[in-house]
Amino acid sequence: SVKINNLPNGSVKIMKQNVASEMFAFTAYPTPANDFTNISFNLPNNDFVTVKLYDALGNEVAQLVNEFRTKGAYNETISLKGFATGNYLMKLSAGTNNSVIKINIIK
User: Fold this and answer.
1) pLDDT tens across 47-66, in order?
2) Is the torsion defined by CA of 6, 9, 11, 17 positive or negative?
3) Positions of the chain with pLDDT lower than 70, given as ranges
4) With 0-12 CB in 10 A as exposed, 13-18 as middle and 19+ as buried, what is 54?
5) Alpha-carbon torsion (31, 23, 79, 91), positive or negative
6) What does the DSSP assignment read for 29-77?
């Protein structure tokens, strides 16, 4: 959850409270990407993990990861060869946790 504190002169300070889901981090770089992207994610628990790629219309175009993983930090290189230039969404799911990031592919 987010807490907003009003400060003098109309400024706003936003403080994000520390919640357990923050341990479930998911990033991809570089973006825009060409032939590959590096994904990083942290699992707070042992769980079955999927990483799926969706096109701009919401159609699933690839399942990039589909396996059981132990808790911990992961860094992986994902091939983007064969995907057209465009905007995509990459979704990480593990147990009840889900995270979606935008990725741009440029050829």
Assistant:
1) 999 999 999 999 999 999 99
2) negative
3) 1-22
4) middle
5) negative
6) ESSSBSSEEEEEEEESS-EEEEEEEE-TTS-EEEEEEEEEE-SEEEEEE
